[in-house]
Amino acid sequence: MAGRSQVMETRPVREEENLLRKKYYESIAAQSDLMDKLAEHLLTLELGIPGLFATVLKLTRGDAATLPITNSLNIAFGFWLAALALTLWALTPRKWKVDVGMMKQDPAKFDEGLGIEDFFNQSALHKRRLLIASSILFFAGIASAALTLG
Questions:
Q1: d(CA 36, CA 6)
Q2: With 60 as the cut, is the pLDDT of residue 1 above it?
Q3: Backbone region of residue 69 per phi and psi (left: phi > 0; alpha: psi in -120 to 50; beta: other values)
Q4: Which uninterrupted H or E stretch holds 136?
Q5: Domain assignment of residue 13, yes or no
Q6: Backbone phi, then psi, for 98, in 5-degree steps?
Q7: What backbone torsions phi and psi does residue 50 show, to the nearest 5 degrees?
Q8: Which of 60, 44, 72, 46 lies closest to 148, judged by CA?
Q9: Is residue 4 part of a domain?
Q10: Quick one: what percent of the chain has pLDDT higher than 90?
């Protein structure tokens, strides 16, 4: 019937629901920190593996531990250098334009400023993309280094 309003029943929010909501927002806020921790571990590997490669070469070939400079070797170190650069880029702080009065912005208007939730999501997404690319390049470098020993 026209003009009749429908009554909605409500209930107080349960403590468990508040806890889940809080944990949800904490997980959004922690995404960027998780990406930073991943980047730190990846950085350790990216700095260590080339050194380990040289050490293994020295141990397996003795005093004559030379390796001809081949395309595979150049490519391996090129991949490792690119991976290192991407990881460092992921760890470098970036300025974001954020409207602190808004929780979520329309994605079409991100150039005007992000909402608070968008900031955490976009920051983590930016780092995740760089770290995925870095990981792919790093493992491509390992595969290329393996070809130099064959």
A1: 50
A2: no
A3: beta
A4: helix 116-149
A5: no
A6: -125, 135
A7: -60, -40
A8: 72
A9: no
A10: 39
CA distance 35 to 55: 30
> Could you tell me which residues are beta bridge partners of residue 114?
98
CA–CA gap between residue 52 and residue 125 (Å, rounded): 31
In eight-state DSSP terms, residue 104 is: -
Q: How far is 84 from 131, CA to CA, in rounded Å?
A: 10
Q: What is the pLDDT of residue 80?
A: 93
Structural domain total, the chain: 1
How many other CB atoms are found less than 10 A from the CB of residue 117? 15
What number of residues does the chain have? 150
**Which pTM does this prediction carry?**
0.77
Cβ contact 87:127 at 8 Å: no
More confident residue, 103 or 129: 129
Residues 34 and 144: their CA atoms lie apart, in Å, by: 29
Site of tokens 């889940």: 20
Task: Note the pLDDT tens digit of each residue in 110-120.
Answer: 888 899 889 99
Spatial neighbors of 84 by CB under 8 A, at least 6 apart, are 43, 46, 47, 134
Query: What pLDDT, on the 0 to 100 scale, is given for residue 28?
Result: 85
Is 115 among the domain residues?
yes
| 27 part of a folded domain | no
